[in-house]
Amino acid sequence: MSEEKKRFIQEFVPGKQLTLSHLIANPDPDMFQKLGIQEAGALGIMTCTPSETVIIAGDLATKAANVRLGFLDRFTGSLVIVGSVSEVEMAMIEINRFLSEKLGYTPSQITKS
């Protein structure tokens, strides 16, 4: 007797979400050098799905607080925000709030280290 083989088909359907929101307070100066960005008090790291959302997030960050964009990649949805701890946190809160309330995204809890 031959056993019937079953096939599974998986489909990736991206949601609208912030998948990571992490604030690094007082990172080691070597980290800035490795990233190729100017040293500051904090780094905010975020990833967005769909990836083009990172353009909106970068705009929101610079309008919400006195921060700089250390890195923004519209193909991976990665965003690095640079500034003081309080300013980076303020920018990350605003990004999560706006995307959640205005665009229906699933927000991400802001974690810290």
TrEMBL record:
InterPro entries: BMC_CP, BMC_dom, CcmK-like_sf, EutS/PduU/CutR. It comes from the Bacteria. Residues 7-105 form the BMC circularly permuted domain. Keywords: Bacterial microcompartment. CDD domains: BMC_PduU-EutS (cd07046). It is found in: Bacterial microcompartment. NCBIfam families: PRK15468.1. This is Propanediol utilization protein PduU.
